[in-house]
Amino acid sequence: MTPEDGRTISAEAGASASRSRLKVIDCDVHHALRSGKDLWPYMATRWHSHMEEFGRRRPVPFTGASPYPKTAPALSRTDSWPPNGGPPGSDLGFMQEQLLDRYNIEYGMLHLLMSGMDERNQDLGNATCSAINDWQYEHWTQKDSRLKAAIVVPGEDPPAAVREIERWAGNPDFAQISMVTHAIEPLGRRRYWPIYEAAQAHNLPVGLHSSGNNGHAVTGGGWCSFYVEEQHNVALSQQQLAISLVCEGVFERFPALKAVIVEAGYVWVPSVAWRLDQHWARMKGEMPHLTRKPSEYFRSHLWYSSQPADEPERPEDLRQVLDWIGWDRLLFSTDYPHWDMDNPEQVFKLRLSEQEQQMIYNANARAVYGLA
Amino acid sequence: MARHVVAAVSEIAPGSRKIVTIRGREIGIFNLDGAFFALLNRCPHQGGELCRGTLIGLATSPEPGVFELSRRGEMLKCPWHGWEYDIRTGQSWCDPNDTKVRAYPVSVEPGETLVRGPFVAETFAVAVEQDYVVVDV
Amino acid sequence: MSASGGGIDCDVHPAVPGMAALVPYLEPYWQEQIAVRGIDGLDLSSFPPQMAAHGRADWRENGSKPGSSLERLRADALDGFGSQLAICNPLYGVLAVYNEHFAAALARAMNDWLAAEWLDREPRLRGSITVAAQNPELAVDEIERRAGDRRFVQVLLLAQGDVPLGNRRFWPIYAAAERHGLSIGVHAGSTFRHAVTSNGWPSYHLEDYAAHAQAFQSTLLSLVHEGAFTKHPGLTFVMIESGFTWLPTFMWRANKTWRGVRAEVPWVDRAPSAFIRDHVRFTLQPTDAPPSGADMQRVLDMIGSDDMLLFSTDYPHWQFDGDNVWPDGFSDTLKRRVLVDNPRNAYPRLKEAVP
Question: Rounded CA gap, A92 and A262, in Å?
Answer without folding.
Answer: 22
